[in-house]
Amino acid sequence: MFLGEYQHSLDAKGRVILPSKFRGLLTGGCIVTRGQDACIAIYPRDAWEELSTRLEESSQSAKKARDFRRIWYASAVEEEPDKQGRITIPEHLRQYAGLERDVTVAGDGKKIEIWSREAWERRLAEAVPAYSEIAETDPDIVF
Fold this sequence. Notes:
Blueprint: E1 5-9, E2 15-17, H1 20-23, E3 30-34, E4 40-44, H2 45-56, H3 63-74, E5 77-79, E6 86-88, H4 91-97, E7 102-108, E8 111-116, H5 117-127, H6 131-137
Antiparallel strand pairs: 1-7, 2-6, 3-4, 3-5, 4-8, 7-8
């Protein structure tokens, strides 16, 4: 499980060092793609395959489902951390998430998210005050 928040930087080649605690969970490689809310999502292969299987079960005739699948697969790239624990974030994904230099690498259970540091701080400023209320009132959140 991916847990915690880490501050890192992209190098000139668009690479980011993943936290050492995360690397062992990515030994079979990973898939890097667009995340929700303008961040980058990194999935271990098994989690990617599980989600892709569920996605393929969605309606082939529903336009929103087709559009989501197109973005999901077309944006994705396969990566494997190098010996220093770095992965490359392709230019199209860096642009999507507004990544320049300073980034936050955050654990999100079965996946990792990479945010521009500024976007991460804005997201937390919006979400943290409502944290307890969300857990109490949102039926999609199960404790």
